[in-house]
Design goal:
single chain; alpha+beta; Alpha-Beta Plaits; two-stranded antiparallel ribbon; globular; binds iron/sulfur cluster
């Protein structure tokens, strides 16, 4: 287990599991405007890389803060009842997005 930290005004800490040796073939693409902040994807991720950001807001938003730990299993997308997570084959683009952008910025 490795601690990952993400900045969001205050620090968010997640417990991520082992990094995969190769990048996955697909990765989730979170759409914050569709997210209702239920947290189901956070629970579903076996790698522990998703957190809810904006917990002080009316509706928080899920974000993959540890994309390098993602194994592309799609459990987050399957768990989302709001269709706020779609899997994409543009893995590099998704990683770049998670590293440079966050909801509510
Ligand atoms: S695809 Fe799997 S490992 Fe990657 S964020 Fe979703 S649930 Fe976690
Ligand atoms: S399961 Fe969907 S609606 Fe719920 S927090 Fe995750 S992305 Fe948002």
């Amino acid at each position: 287990m490795t601690d990952i930290k993400a900045e969001e005004g205050k620090e968010v800490k997640v417990k991520a599991k082992k990094k995969p040796k190769k990048p996955p073939k697909q990765m989730p693409w979170f759409m914050p405007f569709m997210c209702d902040g239920c947290g189901d994807c956070v629970e579903a991720c076996p790698q522990g890389g998703i957190v809810l950001l904006g917990l002080d807001r009316k509706v928080p938003s899920a974000w993959l803060v540890a994309p390098e730990y993602c194994i592309g299993c799609a459990k987050c997308a399957d768990a989302c009842q709001s269709s706020a997570v779609q899997m994409t084959a543009y893995v590099e683009k998704a990683i770049e997005r998670y590293k440079t952008k966050k909801p509510f910025q």
